[in-house]
Amino acid sequence: MCDVIDLSESGCKLRITANFADVGDTVFIKPEGMETLAGTVRWKNDGWMGVEFLEAVYRPVVDHLVQTSATTLRATVYRTTPRLPDIWRR
Q1: Which architecture does CATH list for 2-81?
Q2: Are the beta carbons of 5 and 37 closer than 8 angstroms?
């Protein structure tokens, strides 16, 4: 689980605790009470990750999620494929 700190129609900022994806990877984000969103990791920095959604989220849905989340929205985030060790990447 991670925290969705900033959610918009085009993407989100995540607070992450594990290094499971790199910039350019496709990830899936499943916020509580919402369907799974696919996106591309655009940046990472010291426990934070920015994701651009592959398809825009309907604005009223974003507004509803922001209003109903007391402080932060929790979400499950995962990659599409297992991550290979760095030594195997070339």
Answers
A1: Beta Barrel (2.40)
A2: no
- Cα–Cα distances (Å) from 40 to 52, 68, 70, 71, in that order, read 5, 26, 27, 25
Report, in angstroms and rounded to the nearest whole number, the Rg of the chain calculated over CA atoms.
Answer: 13
- Chain segment 25-54, per-residue pLDDT in tens: 999 988 877 788 899 999 999 999 999 999
Write b or e for each residue in 9-35: b if 16 or more Cβ atoms lie within 10 A of its Cβ, otherwise e: eebbebeeeeebbeeebebbbebeebe
The span from the CA of 35 to the CA of 89, in Å, is 32
For residue 64, count other CB atoms closer than 10 A to its CB. Answer: 13
Lookup result for tokens 């990830």: 27
Domain spans of the chain? Answer: 2-81
